[in-house]
Amino acid sequence: MRIAIITGGESLEKDIALKGAKAVENALKKLGHETALIEIDKHICEYLKNFGPDKAFIVAHGTYGEDGKIQGLLDILDISYIGSGVKSNAICIDKDFTKQMFRQNNIPTPDWHAYKPKDVIDWNIFPCIAKPACAGSSFGLFKVEDEKSLKKAAQNIFKIDDKLIVEEFIEGKDMTVGYFKGKVLEPIEVVPKKGIYDYESKYTKGMSEYLFLEDKELVKRLKDITSKIVDIFELKDIARVDFRVRGEEIYTLEINTIPGLTELSLLPMALNKDGISFDSMVEALING
């Protein structure tokens, strides 16, 4: 099979996408498929036409990868691809829109407010989390303790996004649940050594510990919420949902429509727990 691995793009997560794309390329070559690694730029239609893929494997995060744009282009070109469609990606890329849908569907999420650059930031509950609405990999994520720190965080965030999310800080544990080909995977607790699961904690070896849960009731509740989210947001093939857990309370934070596929990524880790290797994951996605 001829597989176009689409990667790169304009987001701050480009380097992470390229690492994941290389891992997918290596797996596909071992499995005997013909591949082309195609970076997203203004020539992408020409590259795709010249290669003539049977299927596209998108490994691009943020802008152009997870915002529905590349999916729309592939739909127009009549090239089938792995993952969720235009609508799901366009909604899930924006944490404000996603959280509005959580609330409409009675899925608990931390209180928040969205701000544009010209808005007066009137948030007064601290500590809180400040983050870009449409960036992933915890780029631009800040835990802030006061109004002065919040204003400084907002200045940094508005350099990379035109919408700021200020969110209630939930004292608790970070959890994540993967979804793969109709199955909700085992939840993982993420324990960052520096206390907050930011970019450094995600992509630096040894900066976080990953634990599979032993609490069967909590596992069931997390899986049930994830399954509900998969249905509501019409997620397909592969995804990951992030949570914050405080005691008996579960708060849903965000949805990743194209989860990371690097050696430190959480979805491959959860699949491995189920006895599914990285190569087997790639093959199942291609053949699905």
Q: Choose one word for the global shape.
A: globular
C-alpha end-to-end distance:
13 Å
Listing every helix as H and every strand as E from the N terminus to the C terminus, the arrangement reads EHEHEHHHEEEHEEEEHEHEEHH
SS content category: alpha+beta
Figure out the total of helices. 10
Radius of gyration: 19 Å
Question: What is the chains' assembly state?
Answer: single chain
Largest sheet: 6 strands, antiparallel
- Low-confidence blocks of residues: none
Summary keywords:
288 residues; 10 helices; 4-stranded antiparallel sheet; alpha+beta; single chain; 6-stranded antiparallel sheet
Concise summary:
With 288 residues, this protein is of the alpha+beta class. The chain is built from ten helices and 13 strands.
Question: What do these coordinates show?
Answer:
The chain is α+β, with helices and mostly antiparallel strands. It has helices spanning 14-30, 44-51, 69-77, 86-92, 95-104, 147-157, 199-203, 216-232, 266-273, 278-287, and strands at 2-8, 34-40, 55-59, 112-115, 128-132, 142-144, 164-168, 173-180, 183-184, 188-192, 208-212, 238-246, 249-256. The strands form three sheets. Strands 8, 9, 10, 11, 12 and 13 form a six-stranded antiparallel sheet that branches. It has a four-stranded antiparallel sheet with strand order 4-7-5-6, with helices on one face. The chain has a three-stranded parallel sheet with strand order 2-1-3. The mean pLDDT is 94.
How is the topology of this model organized?
Elements: E1 2-8, H1 14-30, E2 34-40, H2 44-51, E3 55-59, H3 69-77, H4 86-92, H5 95-104, E4 112-115, E5 128-132, E6 142-144, H6 147-157, E7 164-168, E8 173-180, E9 183-184, E10 188-192, H7 199-203, E11 208-212, H8 216-232, E12 238-246, E13 249-256, H9 266-273, H10 278-287
Helix pairs in contact: 1-10
